[in-house]
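Appendix C reproduces, verbatim, an entry submitted by the partner laboratory led by Prof. M.T., so that reviewers can inspect both the input and the predicted structure.
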Amino acid sequence: MLEETQETEEIIQRVAALDIGKAELTCCVRVPSPGKRGRRAQEVRTYQTMTRWLLVMADRLGELGVTRVVMEATSDYWKGVFYLLEAHGFETWLVNARDVKHLPGRPKTDTLDAVWLAKVAERQMLRPSFVPPRPIRQLRDVTRYRTDLVAARTAEKQRVEKLLEDAQIKLSVVASDIFGVSGRAMLAALIAGERDPKRLAQLARARMRAKLSLLEEAFCGFFSDHHGFLLTRMLARIDQLSADIAALDARIEALIGPFAQTVDRLDEIPGVGQTAAHLLIAEIGVDMTRFPTAGHLVSWAKFAPGVKESAGKRKGTATTGHGNPYLARVLGEAAVAAGRTDTFLGERYRRIARRRGANKAIVAVGRSILVIVWHLLTDPNLRYHDLGAGFYDTRVNADRAKRNHVRQLEALGYKVTLEPAA
């Protein structure tokens, strides 16, 4: 029996497709044929990617009445072209290269790629990728750069620790943070030429003074002028990175101003702080109309397992795929932080981690956080309400809980007899 679907066959009358490279791009325009009804006419031209030539292309697309321009996400070369055409009022689509596959055996050239992309686009067989509006793009640029600088600073700190190990200075064994006030004072003294373990240990502050004897042992090493030369450059690099991160934090505060109320509502989610809220807004925006349901957002972020079915059997359902690495990082960190709290998400993390391991717990709780974020962004009047760590206990069937406890006691060698309480 034939079932009618909601899909309609509709051709985009005037469409353009771009195959973009670093120095030049190939543009294929498909429009109705002026002389033959029902036939299509196409024009294929090559333009340089310099701004002057892109403006020439935009004028030509306007002359032909093009309404939609489609391009593949090729490295970062698409960005300038996309933004320019977007500013000229074209409906600009960025599509995933995985969705535009050639038929087997077809030769691959820039011209054929552009023509094929145009034919697929005019039949509406493509989905646009998520490209946030300009304010969100600017915020994303800053937050991503900040993330990269934090990673660079962490790598530099690790180099310092390796350098100290090379000199047999075991400061990291005694101090949890060798870059605190006490640690930096001791490192500065080492650079200045101080080698006496007792004098170095006396630079400890606050609670570290309780470890003076251990500090004296830690500084019994072979720190030389060579180590001091390298340590000076490493600490200077760390200080410069810290200053750059502080400048980026100030810039983020200025850009996040219009979304301050949204940040405060996201901050109420366990594991999500102010910095994580900034990153979430930068990566997914605040307009959830692009994602009709929470499931669409989760699927786009690749926090939902993929489905592969063949011959009636499902295969590979445990893999989620490769999504946005910056979004995955912040969701993973938020999930781990939530796992340390006495909340619903914390209990969810611990329950899954006990049965299936920490990695699956991180993905599951990260997905839950993303669903919560979608609901909060969809309705600006919503506030986060925690269900509590005891939510699972109140929802578990009493008979099932009784059977589980009896089974556990019997496995330990006990004979269990149950009597109702008075």
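Residues 134-166 form the longest helix (33 residues). Additional entries are available on request from the coordinating office.
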